[in-house]
């Protein structure tokens, strides 16, 4: 049962992989020129390699650890610890990048990937249950999540230096890469061995290194060229104190994703409650991915001229509408209809939050801000994993869904209050 739950976490997937890559002239200083080098293709490789790595580390954690005879409770603790460490390490490294005139995201990505690879080598050499595997897998998850915080800083750096990146398209391709690996890795593990999980992790780690080497020459050395702005960057606590509205937004997002993950992490429970089975849950997951594709892949085309903050307010409203629609659903068709709202809620928010942060937060604090925004979804996921199961065990599915709706409503109100206009 837990395996099914873990496979339906909040990290969604798309089914299509395609991209046009155009090259123009590169600028190494901030510019508003209409002629800008397009880094969408190499950044899509960054996104694709990360989400494939995430797929291996988190989505197949249950397959690997339960296969080594860990209990469900032990699995849950490893996932929670890895997510929490990643939620702490990512923002802390991002704050360091903002403050330091010697450290940049470009300089930190290789050592973090190296640490990730070391943990995977340990797992390959020690494929048995025990303290070594427990520690190594926990750190493997943490280092995997940390890379995305640095990847988001690469996006901010590219935009700041006048380069063009269609984030929504790149993120959509990342999700498509996730579903491709998930499909094929599952079949391979079923037919060969669960030891393919750490081996796949090593391969995806190498893919991330390759993607990094491809994009590296196109980005100036941010640690040098932005040294003046970095000396002005604030510490994490000072940043949260000085950006109170953004801090309010972060709190609202954590609550929204707490509610969101009470639903998607335990989707099998909800499916069974309306008379469905595992095959129906698979259909619902595929349906969610399908309705998300247009918004993510076409975000720039459809909404490029609109303010990200306004779009986020719309997304928060649809999170609430989706939560109540799911709570009211009493059949599989009704549940599918409710998940149509996945597009204007989760998908719209995911596409808008990165450009929103880039718009409202000064560049000197961009790494911290992007990392914190991403981390709040992880915080919501951890809370849902720890408390959602308790709710489902001690109350009914319907009661739990109404609790999720209440949390979602509070989160949406808080998040709307935290949205601000661009500077």
Q: How are the secondary structure elements laid out?
A:
Elements: H1 2-6, H2 40-59, H3 61-67, H4 72-99, H5 105-125, H6 131-160, H7 167-191, H8 196-215, H9 222-225, H10 227-230, H11 236-242, H12 244-264, H13 267-273, H14 278-297, H15 299-303, H16 308-328, H17 332-338, H18 343-360, H19 366-394, H20 397-418
Structure description:
This protein is mainly α and about 425 residues long. About 75% of the residues lie in helices and about 0% in strands. It is built from 20 helices and no strands. It has helices spanning about 1-5, 40-60, 60-65, 70-100, 105-125, 130-160, 165-190, 195-215, 220-225, 225-230, 235-240, 245-265, 265-275, 280-295, 300-305, 310-330, 330-340, 345-360, 365-395, 395-420. Helix 16 packs antiparallel against helix 17. It is globular.
Keywords:
disordered N terminus, mainly alpha
The end-to-end distance, rounded to whole angstroms, is 48 Å
Strand proportion? under 5%
Mean pLDDT: 81
The class by helix and strand makeup works out as mainly alpha
Q: Give the helix tally.
A: 20
- Low-pLDDT parts are 1-35, 224-231
**How much is the radius of gyration in Å?**
21 Å
Total number of strands:
0
| Secondary structure: helix percent | over 70%
Order of helices and strands: HHHHHHHHHHHHHHHHHHHH
Q: Mind summarizing the main beta sheet?
A: none
Shape summary: globular
